[in-house]
Structure formats: structure tokens, C-alpha cells
Design a protein that fits this description.
- This is F-box domain-containing protein.
- InterPro entries: F-box-like_dom_sf, FBL15-like.
- It comes from Miscanthus lutarioriparius.
- The structure is a single chain.
- By secondary structure, the protein is an alpha/beta fold.
- The protein has helices spanning about 15-20, 25, 30-40, 45-50, 80-95, 165-170, 285-295, 345-355, 385, 415-425, 445-460, 485-495, and strands spanning about 65-70, 105-110, 120, 130-140, 150-160, 180-190, 195-200, 205-210, 220, 230, 240, 250, 265-275, 275, 300-310, 315-320, 335-340, 365-370, 405-415, 435-440, 465-470, 480-485.
- The protein is built from twelve helices and 22 strands.
Length: about 500
């Protein structure tokens, strides 16, 4: 007879095991605890509170790769401001003792008065690793510190404490941050910092973005590996750039000239003013941009003009583009954001002079950015005056050659007759055209007129093309159409409508 297997009942839990059963959080391994904290998306104040869950969780938050100081409640007194700053400083000091291969710190004091609060101190040593983001704070920089693992640093809405400006260059140098690859400075105030010069000597830096950095007269870049550079509204008087590998350059709203060689820049973004205005005594508004175009004319393949400022017709005087900008035969892609300062009937006059500088464009994008006004909102009562333009088209004499153009995008159109005439003029020599995209700014067209007028506009532009509605993120304010066909069919459409009077 087969002997039945003896079943052993599970052992009764001991007191210690009972305690462990009650404290299941302590039984989790560190990696799982860290994963839970990551997925919870808690800010630092909430993370610190998790230390009370059990002994195992005390200080576990220090191991997280991201520390978030956002989401702080409204400050109601100076004491709460001081308490917030003390917490930030204490957390950073504690974080200095933690080890991690990569780390990010985000903190913001958007609701405190940074001019009256105490200073936030950057920690010494390895407290900041991987990535750091300082936002909306008065920052006191350390005298001596080395952040050997820091690769990504953002200083945003930051005011440097009085007398600490000379430390900024050291903080950003290869001595202090030998691994720094990405640096972003936005709305950084150096006025009280006690220095007007900033020399960035960073051997590993790949990306640098500076926007609205105040109080800086001299900027010098010693960045042998830099690939991307953006300088926007930094009104320094002198700029020196040593970046032999630079490929992508944005230089907008700056007056300082760049005289240094930039042999590898293939993508360039600048701003331009088309005409001098009546009350403008500065005829050199485009000087720094034109100087940059001349320096990069042989290497640039993609040019972005953002913005192209177009004064209204009654204020335009001397042309600041025609015969001043060099010919750019190597540019194959042109993207223009047109900013009309007063009204929308200056579309063609502002763009035509720029287009004469190119002979080999394959892609053209014109984005019209107009803020609608009450008297420019077109309705059924004034549609004739709104869309019918009787003013002279000065651009008709412009020598525009787009024989190689394959793709054209026209965004933010208001539907005026002068827009339609100009777009037809632009496409008149586009004999290799394959795709045309047109979007309309619905602010300017009464809803009951939208379909009929847009249909007329599109089929007058390219009557034989097959227009289709495209998906658009902002369907309530912009309607997007695309015409794609064979180059021969679009060529026929262009030729057929070239002489159509509008």
C-alpha cells in the first residue's frame, strides 16, 4: 500500500516575523523602493516626508536621479521665504554625500521676491551630478568646487549675488565642470555680480544657449567641441567665438559682430529688418546679421530668418536688404517668419527683396505672424475692402528665381488679394514644384466666408492641383491644406494661372 506523503504545516510566525509582516515597506529592496519614489513624481518636500515610513526609507530620497523643488506653496511671510531657502540649502548639502551616476536638480522660487530673500548656495563636491537646473533664485556661487560628473546645467531667471560674478566663469570652466556638455542661461542678471566680462573655457561643451543675459559687455567663447550655439537678446558690445566645429548657430537681436571664422556652420538663424522706418535713425539695424551671413555664405545650407520685421507701407523708407545681403547660392532651405508691425498688406514687399538673394532653393517656408486687431477682422460686410488690394505691388520688378524649388509652405495666410498675387508671383518660376502647403489664419476670415474664400484662394493659386485638408494642432485658429502632385502637373498649373488677373 502506497504511503501517503506527510504534509508539514507552515511554521507559526515568530514575534519578529510578525513585526516584519506589519512593516512590509522595510522588506522591499532598495531598487524597488527607489522605483516607487520615481514613479510617484514627488517634489523634495514630499520625498523627505517618506523618511517617516520606516528606518529603511530614511534618506532613500537622496539616491534619486531627479530632485524637484517645484510645487511649493505660496509664501506668506519673509520667514517662510527664509525657511524655503534653508530647506533648499540643507537638501543640497545632504545630497552632496549621496552617490549616483546621473542626477538632476530642479528648483524654482517663482513666488518669492528674489531681491529680498537669502542666497541659495551651490553645494561643494559631488552634490550635483548629471544635470542641474536653477530657476528663479538669487544664487551665491561657491569659491572652490569641482563637479566632475555634471553634464547638463541650466541657469534660469537667476540673479547672481553681489560680488560673485568672477566665480561664474570658473563654475562653467573645464576646471570646475570637466564633463559639462550642455549649458543654458536664460534671464541671468549679472548687473550686481561685479563683472562685465564672461569667458567660457569649456573643453567638452557641445551645446550653449544664452537668452537675455544682462550686464555683460564682453563674451568670449573658448569651446573647441561646440556644435550648437544660441545667443538671443544678449546686448553685449564685444563677442569672440573660438568654435571650429560649430554647425548650428542662432544669433538673434544682438548688435555685436562676429568676426571669427565659422567654417562648418550649415544652419544659421538670424533676424532682419526689411526697411528703415520714418522715425528710425539707425541704418545699421541689420549690420551684425549681414556680417554673419557674409562670414558663413560658403557653408550655410539652411537659413532661418526669425523674425523678418516688415514695417507698414506708410512708414517704409530705405530698403535695408536689397543689394546689402550677399548672394547665397549654397542655401537650399529658407524658412522665414514674417512679423508685420502694423498691418497685413505688406507681405510681398518685405519678402521679395530677400528672395532675390537665392538661386538654388529647394524648400521655402513663409510664416506670416500677425496679431489680429478689431479693425482687421474681416466680415461679410467689408469683405471687398478687406481682400481687394488696390495698392501697387512694388515686388513685381524683383528678380526671383526658384527653378529648383520642390516644396513650398505658406503658413498663416489672411486671404488678401496681395497675398494671393505675391504667392503666384513666387511660384511662377517654380518649374520643378512637387508639393505646396497653405494654411489660413482663421482670425481674419468670418466663419461663413471661410470655405468659399479659401477654395477660391487655393484654386486661383494652383487650380489643377489636388488640394486636401491636413491635420493641424490648432484647428480652431488655423486651417491647413496641402497640394501634392507630379511636378509636371503643378508646372502646368503654375503656367496656366501665371497671367490670371486678381
Amino acid at each position: 500500500m502506497k504511503k501517503e506523503a506527510k504534509q508539514t504545516p507552515p511554521p507559526s510566525p515568530t514575534a519578529d516575523q510578525d513585526g516584519a509582516g506589519d512593516d512590509r515597506l522595510s522588506a522591499l529592496d532598495d531598487d524597488l523602493c527607489e522605483l516607487i519614489l520615481r514613479l510617484a513624481h514627488l517634489n523634495v518636500r514630499e520625498l523627505v516626508r517618506t523618511s517617516v515610513l520606516s528606518k529603511r526609507w530614511r534618506g532613500l530620497w537622496k539616491r534619486l536621479p531627479v530632485l524637484d523643488f517645484f510645487g511649493w506653496p505660496e509664501f506668506k511671510s519673509a520667514g517662510e521665504v527664509q525657511q524655503y531657502i534653508a530647506i533648499v540649502n540643507d537638501v543640497l548639502e545632504q545630497r552632496a554625500g549621496a552617490t549616483s551616476e546621473s542626477s538632476t536638480m530642479y528648483w524654482s522660487s517663482e513666488r518669492l521676491n528674489v531681491h529680498t530673500c537669502a542666497n541659495v548656495r551651490l553645494p561643494h563636491g559631488e552634490g550635483v551630478q548629471g544635470r542641474a537646473w536653477l530657476s528663479s533664485a538669487n544664487v551665491r556661487l561657491p569659491r572652490t568646487a569641482v563637479f566632475s560628473s555634471l553634464k547638463d546645467l541650466t541657469l534660469e531667471f537667476v540673479e547672481l549675488a553681489a560680488g560673485s560674478g568672477h566665480r561664474l566663469a570658473r563654475l562653467l570652466s573645464s576646471v570646475c565642470c570637466p564633463s559639462l556638455q550642455k549649458l543654458r542661461m536664460m534671464c541671468v542678471d549679472l548687473l550686481r555680480a561685479g563683472t562685465k566680462e564672461l569667458v567660457l573655457d569649456t573643453g567638452e561643451l557641445l551645446e550653449l544657449s544664452m537668452e537675455a543675459v544682462e550686464g555683460m559687455e564682453l563674451l568670449e567663447l573658448r569651446t573647441p567641441k561646440l556644435l550648437y550655439l544660441e545667443i538671443d537678446e544678449c546686448y553685449h558690445e564685444s563677442l569672440r567665438v573660438s568654435a571650429p566645429r560649430l554647425e548650428d548657430l542662432t544669433y538673434v537681436c544682438n548688435r555685436a559682430f562676429i568676426h571669427d571664422p565659422l567654417p562648418r556652420v550649415w544652419r544659421l538663424k538670424i533676424d532682419l529688418l526689411t526697411h528703415m522706418e520714418d522715425d528710425d535713425d539707425d541704418g545699421d539695424a541689420n549690420s551684425s546679421s549681414i556680417c554673419l551671413l557674409k562670414r558663413c555664405s560658403s557653408s550655410v545650407r539652411c537659413l532661418l530668418v526669425h523674425p523678418l520685421l516688415v514695417p507698414s507701407g506708410d512708414k517704409r523708407q530705405a530698403d535695408l536688404i536689397k543689394d546689402k545681403i550677399p548672394q547665397l547660392p549654397n542655401v537650399t532651405s529658407l524658412l522665414v517668419s514674417i512679423a508685420h508691425t502694423c498691418e497685413c498688406h505688406s507681405f510681398g514687399d518685405g519678402v521679395a527683396g530677400l528672395l532675390t538673394r537665392f538661386k538654388n532653393l529647394e524648400y521655402l517656408s513663409l510664416q506670416s505672424d500677425i496679431c489680429p486687431k478689431t479693425d482687421e477682422y474681416y466680415s461679410a460686410d467689408d469683405v471687398d475692402s478687406a481682400f481687394t488690394c488696390n495698392h501697387p505691388d512694388h515686388w513685381e520688378s524683383s528678380n526671383i528665381s526658384l527653378a529648383n524649388l520642390r516644396k513650398a509652405d505658406f503658413r498663416g495666410m489672411t486671404g488678401t488679394g496681395c497675398e494671393l498675387r505675391f504667392l503666384r508671383f513666387v511660384l511662377a518660376n517654380a518649374t520643378d514644384l512637387q508639393s505646396v502647403t497653405v494654411s489660413f489664419n482663421l482670425y481674419f476670415i468670418e466663419e461663413e466666408l471661410q470655405d468659399s474664400w479659401m477654395h477660391y484662394f487655393l484654386h486661383t493659386l494652383l487650380g489643377d492641383g489636388m488640394w486636401t485638408t491636413c491635420e493641424n494642432e490648432d484647428q480652431d485658429f488655423e486651417k491647413l491644406y496641402k497640394c501634392s502632385s507630379s511636378a509636371e502637373l503643378l508646372k502646368t498649373a503654375v503656367l496656366r494661372h501665371r497671367n490670371l488677373q486678381i
